[in-house]
Design brief:
293 residues; alpha/beta; Rossmann fold; 3 domains; 6-stranded mixed beta sheet; 12 helices; 10 strands; 41% helix
Length: 293
């Protein structure tokens, strides 16, 4: 499923003295099977943008096209399109309400009127996707689980709808390192195994370096830049001007270059930096090839 945003503008409190332009003539495309990372400082328009991608908000002007159909066009079956685009808000565990994990995950498919066998299959599928054992957790209350487990239950409720596009707004916010890593691993596996298009908003450049195939940088309601993580993180001055940083490995790489080490400017993953440093030291130790400095 592809999504195209054309000249999208959104204003809050339109017609009042408090009018605020949250999105200003934004255009972008999201291709089928991509893992898109949306980054930007607080107030840059990230959350407003993703709420347009499944029709939760209507634009002041412009269009959002889903497989060529205008999500807000006349006569369009918006409900059918929205069911194909799952949106996970920040702290989605606050929306859990059923007495058992399986009932909470089954809520969406049940409201679709699916047969019991299909609902059960979807619950099992979704729990497998988020690494929750069905036999162990299905009949437990979600409120007895850890914070990270509760969040995975909430995400499973969206996955049970079998969306073609999964949108997540800060999915690891507030989690401890272990819970954060489990969410990231789950998303990594989901994208690789199911080829689901994923759009993720995050303040963590390290998370984006690990997962995203393409980044969209936002500032002041506009798209400042778009490109692969390698292309974006190589532009550290641009990132700093947007109120952002770069992954820890990219910062270390820059510091080493300033010390005289011969390293490429576009390294941003720890494993890449480690590989280059080992190569330099081996070359220096053998007396062949380039020196580390």
């Amino acid at each position: 499923m592809s999504i195209e945003v054309r000249n999208l503008t959104h204003c809050y409190a339109e017609g009042s003295a408090m009018r605020t332009v949250a999105l200003d003539n934004v255009s972008l495309t999201i291709g089928d099977g991509e893992f898109i990372g949306i980054i930007g400082h607080t107030g840059s328009g990230k959350s407003t943008l993703v709420q347009h991608l499944n029709g939760l908000l209507k634009p002041s002007s412009g269009q959002v096209l889903v497989d060529g159909e205008d999500l807000n066009g006349e006569g369009v079956n918006r409900r059918a399109l929205r069911q194909r685009i799952g949106l996970v808000f920040q702290y989605p565990e606050y929306q859990l309400f059923e007495e058992t994990v399986s009932k909470d995950i089954a809520f969406g498919p049940k409201n679709q009127g699916l047969p019991k066998e299909e609902i059960d299959a979807r619950v099992r599928y979704a729990m497998d996707c988020v690494h929750l054992d069905y036999e162990k957790y299905s009949e437990r209350s979600p409120f007895e689980l850890s914070g990270g487990q509760m969040r995975r239950v909430a995400i499973a409720g969206v996955l049970a709808m079998r969306p073609s596009v999964l949108i997540l707004d800060e999915p690891t916010a507030g989690l401890d390192p272990r819970g954060r890593d489990r969410i990231l691993t789950m998303l990594e596996e989901l994208h690789a195994r199911e080829n689901v298009t994923i759009v993720m908003v995050s303040h963590s450049m390290d998370d984006m370096a690990r997962l995203a195939t393409r980044l969209i940088v936002m500032a002041d309601g506009k798209v400042l830049a778009t490109g692969t993580p390698r292309e974006i993180f190589a532009q550290e001055d641009m990132m700093v001007s947007a109120g952002l940083g770069v992954p820890a490995a990219a910062r270390l790489c820059r510091a080493l270059r300033e010390k005289g080490y011969s390293l490429p400017a576009d390294l941003y993953r720890p494993e890449e930096l480690k590989e280059h440093l080992l190569r330099l030291w081996k070359a220096a130790g053998s007396g062949k090839g380039e020196s580390p400095c």
